[in-house]
Fold this protein.
Amino acid sequence: MDATPHTPPVVQVSTAAPSATLPAEIVAALKTNAGNPPGVRASFAKGQCVTGTYTPSDKAATVTRSRSFTHPSKVLGRFSVGGGSPKVADSNRTVLRGFSLRIGQGPDVSNVLFENAPVHFAKSQAQMLAFLEARTPGPDGKPDPAKVKAFSDANPETLNQAHYVAAHPVPGSFAGITYFAVHAFPATNAKGAHRFVKLQIVPIDGPVTLSDEDAKHKPDDFLFQDLNERLAHGGLRFKIVAILDRAGDPVMDVTTRWPDEDSRESVTLGTVHIQAQSDNAPCDATIFNPATLADGIGAPPDEIFAARSTAYAVSLARRQSENAKR
Ligand code: HEM
């Protein structure tokens, strides 16, 4: 497998001035659409903190010099079910499944957040807010289908994520999901060469899926019950894979996959072994800040990534203040 980087693509870094208010407005819209459940995350509200280990492959340094990925470490993780409600059923057909990872130690820590779709539902912060506002529940507690349709017709790329999820079976276990970090991350390898990569977490024992009929009969928390059973019997194992870029890839648009993304060249950076359930405190007391990335994997240049750190901090402050009042 040749991980030799090519000449780095010239990237138009977003010139839009970072908005001071859009990330907070997005968090408010996420909360509104979920019915404002107090004291929980604005997104991926239902989850479980876990711990484990990371073991690098001997190829990791051909892609990144990041000590998060080239050195063994403990990991903190959180498996989650998407949406802003902690009561969502694990068999829900439309929400995402998430896997957040803190990998590396001390100054070499990186947080990478993954979900089971390779694209986001908006390519700009303004479009993300408008997508959520189009789905604000009316007096009957439901979004207005005419508003949603009008928005979708004018912004067809905002349906790419839902179409991907709809085309795939319901996940049957957190252990059997391929998770995507969505953005194009600029990587610098051990020789100092640069390229973009997309990161995926791939289950070592293959996919675990359910038919729609089987999903109907599952208890609401079956993914978390399955997680506990697997942790009692050796844990969950995944590969972290870097998909390598080619000239011309659309690295600024998180609603679009790269051409032939599923079949192109990739390098396994290492393996993650999740071994134990953790008390939720280490995950709930803080955020998996997507901007915390150790030298060797940089911040993706797109406008959506730029909103994330602030949005997560706003969500943390809100859930902490709501919990303090309870
Ligand atoms: C584009 C790729 C994205 C991925 C893969 C992703 C994934 C995730 C995951 C896995 C979590 C759960 C974090 C945890 O376990 O603690 C999360 C939380 C969250 N996400 Fe995202 N997300 C993305 C984009 C965004 C964007 C663009 C925004 C807003 C501008 C956003 C807002 C939030 C918020 C507010 C939380 C809750 C933070 C907290 O209270 O800790 N996400 N996301």
Observations:
- The chain has one domain: 22-325.
